[in-house]
Amino acid sequence: MYVAVKGGEKAIEASYEALARQRRGDIALAELSIAQIREQLSLSVARVMSEGALYDPELAALAIKQASGDLIEAIFLLRAYRTTLQRFGSTLAIDSASMHVERRISATFKDLPGGQILGATYDYTQRLLDFSLAAEAQGACDGQATNEVIAPESVNGELQNTSPSALDFLNAEGLIEAENKPEGDPAPPDLTREPLQFPAPRPLRLQTLARADEGFLLSLAYSTQRGYARNHPFAGEIRYGKVALEFVPEELGFAIQIGEVALTECQMVNQFVGSKTEPPCFTRGYGLSFGHNERKAMAMALVDRALRAPELDEEVVAPAQMEEFVLAHGDNVEASGFVQHLKLPHYVDFQAELNLVRGLRERMLAQKEGATDE
User: Is residue 155 exposed (0-12), middle (13-18) or buried (19+ Cβ within 10 Å)?
Assistant: First the structure.
């Protein structure tokens, strides 16, 4: 047994070395830096931060490099590191209306207070490979200057675009459900410290969806649009920008700004025909993600609205409306671990099942032979 263990250790050490070589790639090429990943692969960094539940672009970029670009592995690394961090307290709730907006659009209202801000987006590109990017990369390697990027307008180093919610006028007319704080404004449950239990309150559902795999949420959101839920959505507002984080130290007793985070927020507007107690109006679906991550925020908002079916007296008939199915299967770290554990040795289990199948076959053949003799 000791020999087998030592042999396994040597094989694992060799695997580590092979992994390091694979990660580095061709040593004739310059090594990819953390700063390059953070600045030039920012959309990947945003996803890793959101699903890793830790806002730190530097660490997210490091995780991506360590994982050779495997984002789910990088998310796993970031979550594991997060568990080692000490918690000092909680910041005040952010106010997205005070966001320094870099991009803000609405598919429901043409004329918005503050205007539509297209910002940086792939929405209007033709999805054709741009071979000039390869030429730019070669030029950079040769020491030539690449195209200059113009920074957004700012005053005193801060972005100046701030806008109220696009849904405010619907709210003023009573045409959309009001967002009221629950009585006593209790602190929301903390998914990172308390196990997920069903039925889950909406704050806990939203936390779970924010950490859920983007592809899983995207598929569920797509299903709601294809008729697998009573859901006819409009993108009320999608905004991306930076929001100040405020914290109240005990020794001061008042809020101070300790930093800022880049966020993508999505407000979906959905039809609601009313119920026995509620008149027809529009309802909301909400999504929020770290960094610039519109697809995740939109999918999250669609699934959030689908999961609200019971509270709106809607019949639960589709997968996206089934709370336990959605929340229990959307975590990519858990899903990846459960699937990939099949690569580990299962020799004893398989031998047991192999013997069982052989025994069943023998009994079946014996019964057939007995029936033939009769």
Answer: exposed
Q: What is the pLDDT of residues 126-158, one digit of tens each?
A: 888 888 888 866 655 555 544 444 444 443 444
Cα 52 from Cα 30, distance rounded (Å): 28
Phi, psi of 284 (to 5 degrees): -115, 150
Q: Are 285 and 206 in contact (CB under 8 A)?
A: no
pLDDT value of residue 153 = 46
Largest CA distance in the chain: 98
Distance CA 292, CA 158 (A): 18
Q: How many CA atoms lie within 13 A of 166 on its CB side?
A: 25
Q: Is 71 helix (H, G, I), strand (E, B) or coil?
A: helix
CA distances from 301 to 3, 8, 46, 93, 139 (A): 55, 47, 17, 19, 42
Answer for the pair 264, 289: CB distance below 8 angstroms, yes or no: yes
Q: For the chain, which ranges sit under pLDDT 50?
A: 1-5, 145-159
